[in-house]
Amino acid sequence: MRFERAQRIILLENQLEAFQGNVGVVQQFAGQAINDLLQAELLGQNALNQMIDEVIIRQAAEARGITVSEAEVDAEIGRTFNFYDGGLPTPVPTATATMQPTPSVTPIPTAVITDVIPTNTPFPTPTLGPTSTPAPTATPVSADAFQQEFGDLMAQFEELGVSEAQYREIVRTQIYRERLIEALSIENELSDEAEHASFYVLQFDSEEEANEAAALVQSGDFLSVWNEYRSLVPGPESTSTAVATELLWRSQDAVTSSLGEEVAEAACALPIGQPSDVISRTVDAETTRYYLIEVSGREVRPLSASELQTLELENLAAFIDSQLTGNLTLTEYDRGRTPTTPVLDPIFTTPPTATPPVGGG
Q1: How open is the CA angle 66-69-74, to the nearest 5 degrees?
Q2: What would the pLDDT profile of 46-69 be if each residue is shown by its tens digit?
Q3: Residue 360 has what pLDDT?
Q4: What's the pTM?
Q5: What is the rounded distance in angstroms from the CA atom of residue 7 to the CA atom of residue 135?
Q6: Are 37 and 3 in contact, with CB atoms under 8 Å apart?
Q7: Run of H or E including 287
Q8: Residue from 152, 136, 177 nearest 51 by CA
Q9: Could you tell me the sign of the dihedral formed by the alpha carbons of 70, 76, 78, 84, in that order?
Q10: Angle value at C-alpha 250, between 282 and 177, nearest 5 degrees
């Protein structure tokens, strides 16, 4: 808990300095860190859960002969500061061109650009490095610059009750975690490829409008109807709720994240060129959306980096759950005993000073 609290306090202090003492801006950009520090019991429960996972990870890694040396901890700490001890950072893979399917009917150009943005994929716990992360750069920093920045960070941690040894152990645990993820991916033969589909989508907020579009498709063809909706000019006089988009090479998980499980299943099952029936999706208690889709292409393609990362994390989570099921007893002895130090400076919870109106008054 000292580390969890110290890490957030250092973040807040560095931001306060960066924003020249403007607490309001810090509260805006780092409000979650402030809330975490004010909710000690919740932060403590999260820390306890993380510690439980780390015990399983360390035991499983060591059972597989995985070890982490002091030199590897040094290298990982250096990497977070962009220091590679005379080496070079691992180059980022060059993106390959995406071949797009050719539609059977050329879509009508429109000035309105609409696309479905997938929801954020959950990422793994970040490697614990400097709280004031150096700006990304392809040029490694010097040994002197690294020692200065690392020394400054350790001074901040030690002032808040966290030793360098504790910091190094947290970095070591993160390396164990990454190594175990790799090992489990090999053991479970996770594939870095999956079937992807490209398809046209018509989305409606009204079931009646969706049924009308489906009738038009049945009497004609999907792409002609899709083009008609795509070329509609939105405006205050328009009564249509239709949104026409084309999604290119999306995996089933990616489609599920953006359009829901029902659309994803249809995109994987429909024959190419066959329009779907109206697909309904309950978004929330008050919102239902309706879709018509037609698949234009399907093939096995590499997963994106974020999709592969999600798959690996799900694999790790399933392994941890399997190890804990029937083997974990929580006594709740921690309740009411969660540490609340180091203490957050009250300045971060002070309401920001209102900006005086222009011209006085």
Answers
A1: 130
A2: 999 999 999 999 999 999 999 999
A3: 55
A4: 0.75
A5: 18
A6: no
A7: strand 287-302
A8: 177
A9: positive
A10: 95
